[in-house]
Structures are given as C-alpha cells and as structure tokens.
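tool=predict chain=A
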Amino acid sequence: MDENKSDWLTVGEVADELGFSRTTVYGWLETGQLVGHRIAGSWRVKRHDLDAFIAAGRNVPAQEVPHVLP
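tool=predict ok
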C-alpha cells in the first residue's frame, strides 16, 4: 500500500477533526486507546487507525441503524 503524507495526522489534526482537545488525544495515545506512532519525538496517527478508533466507538452496528425515523 502506498502511503503519502496525508495518511499521517498530527495530534492537532486529530483533535480538530474530532472536536476534542490535544490533551485528550495525547491521553488516548498514552493509554493505547488510539493507535499512534512516535516519530522523532512527535506523535503521528495513521488515517486508517483514526477511522478504526472512530468505528470502535459506535454504539449501534451500521447494519442496525434505522433508515426511517418513526
């Protein structure tokens, strides 16, 4: 798989995308809740790891989401 620069996100980019503080994102990285990589002393998150983190937080499986509200 070819990776490019946009496949890697900084802590700030993750925080902005999810609407959380950088401190919260650092906490997830330190506890292993969010998969990240320390590169030259800075955390980086692969796009697919962030997508997996988001998907893991779902409380309703996608196939069970009702398409029509009552």
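Residues 22-31 form the longest helix (10 residues). The two ends are 43 Å apart (CA to CA).
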